[in-house]
């Protein structure tokens, strides 16, 4: 039975964690850093491609690891590209900041021109968004309120 694995990583922290986790298993870890091109795609395809390339380069069995960090608010991003996101925006850049605007109203039979989304059926103070002058809608809408929060946040943090 194979008792030694070549863990392909250049990340000393990953190596330390893997070694610590497997320390009592009797499996010994050797490591080797390889600069492998990263395939784009889902985590499964990326990991399989990485393992195949590493095994060919090493000439035998390897252990590879790839991780994902997926934010539901970002529809799964950065996913397997988290390493590159952190390099580009830092840890703070991966903290989603949500700006949620709300305008209370009611759903009514459609009125006004159907130019945008659900504007004809959302009524606020007697008028649907579709019936309002665009400047009026843009001064009271949920979108305005969220963007106003964004503007204030950026003034304070950027």
TrEMBL record:
Residues reported in the UniProt entry to bind ITP: 9-14, 50, 66-67, 116-119, 137, 142-143
GO biological process: deoxyribonucleoside triphosphate catabolic process; nucleotide metabolic process
Assigned keywords, A-Z: Cytoplasm, Hydrolase, Magnesium, Manganese, Metal-binding, Nucleotide metabolism, Nucleotide-binding, Nucleus
GO MF term set: dITP diphosphatase activity; ITP diphosphatase activity; metal ion binding; nucleotide binding; XTP diphosphatase activity
Catalytic reaction equation(s): dITP + H2O = dIMP + diphosphate + H(+); XTP + H2O = XMP + diphosphate + H(+); ITP + H2O = IMP + diphosphate + H(+)
Record-listed E.C. numbers: 3.6.1.66
Binding positions (Mg(2+)): 38, 66
CDD domains: HAM1 (cd00515)
Details of cofactor binding: Binds 1 divalent metal cation per subunit; can use either Mg(2+) or Mn(2+).
Domain of life of the source: Eukaryota
EC class: hydrolase
Localization: Cytoplasm; Nucleus
Cofactor: Mg(2+); Mn(2+)
GO cellular component: cytoplasm; nucleus
Role this protein plays: Pyrophosphatase that hydrolyzes non-canonical purine nucleotides such as inosine triphosphate (ITP), deoxyinosine triphosphate (dITP) or xanthosine 5'-triphosphate (XTP) to their respective monophosphate derivatives. The enzyme does not distinguish between the deoxy- and ribose forms. Probably excludes non-canonical purines from RNA and DNA precursor pools, thus preventing their incorporation into RNA and DNA and avoiding chromosomal lesions.
PANTHER family reported for this sequence: INOSINE TRIPHOSPHATE PYROPHOSPHATASE, INOSINE TRIPHOSPHATE PYROPHOSPHATASE/HAM1 PROTEIN
Similarity comment: family membership: Belongs to the HAM1 NTPase family.
Subunit structure: Homodimer.
Protein name, per record: Inosine triphosphate pyrophosphatase
Organism: Tuber magnatum
